[in-house]
């Protein structure tokens, strides 16, 4: 990112495969492709969670694909930084279809909400839409 005058410019890698959401709408993915997307997202979430960060908006629109098979988790605007003393959040953020029950019940939640959301993405890849 660059600060030019009073404007912040953010440079991101171009992912020529588009979002997972757009792919799901166009084609039925093969089982191996779905597994690869899940594996790469789990690796990204593992890295975030190891650094005490909850993504809080894992969904197909925020998973970007490359034509070379690369997978990137994107849109970190709703992330929450936790500490070893405070490992739960309670604010309700995210997108309805992908929200874990803890959100809806307004209960404290931790990193597991990202895993729930990725599970919804897996169902979406299988069925072509979220449950």
Task: Provide an overview of this structure.
With 131 residues, the chain is α+β, with helices and mostly antiparallel strands. The chain has a single domain (15-127), classed as Orthogonal Bundle (Transferase(Phosphotransferase), domain 1), CATH 1.10.510.10. The chain has helices at 20-26, 31-50, 101-104, 112-127; strands at 2-4, 7-9, 18-19, 53-54, 63-65, 71-73, 80-81. The strands form 3 sheets. A 3-stranded antiparallel sheet has the order 3-5-6. Strands 1-2 form a two-stranded antiparallel sheet. A two-stranded antiparallel sheet has the order 4-7. The chain starts with a strand and ends with a helix.
CATH superfamily: Transferase(Phosphotransferase) domain 1
The topology string of helices and strands comes to EEEHHEEEEHH
Stretches with pLDDT under 50, minimum 5 residues:
none
Would you tell me which CATH topology applies?
Transferase(Phosphotransferase), domain 1
**Largest sheet composition:** 3 strands, antiparallel
Give the helix level as a range of percent: 25-40%
Rg (CA only): 16 Å
CATH C-level category: Mainly Alpha
Report the portion of residues in β strands: 5-15%
Our count of helices gives 4
Sheet with most strands: strand arrangement: 3-5-6
- How far the N terminus sits from the C terminus, by CA atoms, comes to 37 Å
Average pLDDT: 89
Structural class label: alpha+beta
Shape assignment: globular
Number of domains: 1
CATH second-level architecture? Orthogonal Bundle
Number of strands: 7
């Amino acid at each position: 990112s660059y600060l030019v005058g009073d404007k912040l410019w953010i440079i991101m890698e171009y992912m020529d495969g588009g979002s997972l959401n757009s792919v799901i709408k166009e084609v039925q993915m093969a089982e191996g492709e779905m597994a690869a997307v899940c594996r790469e997202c789990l690796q990204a979430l593992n890295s975030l969670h190891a650094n005490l960060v909850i993504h809080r908006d894992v969904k197909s629109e925020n998973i970007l694909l490359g034509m070379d098979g690369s997978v990137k988790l994107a849109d970190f605007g709703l992330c929450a930084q936790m500490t070893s003393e405070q490992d739960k959040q309670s604010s309700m953020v995210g997108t309805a279809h992908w929200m874990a029950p803890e959100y809806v019940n307004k209960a404290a939640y931790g990193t597991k909400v990202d895993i729930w959301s990725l599970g919804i993405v897996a169902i979406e890849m299988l069925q072509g839409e979220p449950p």
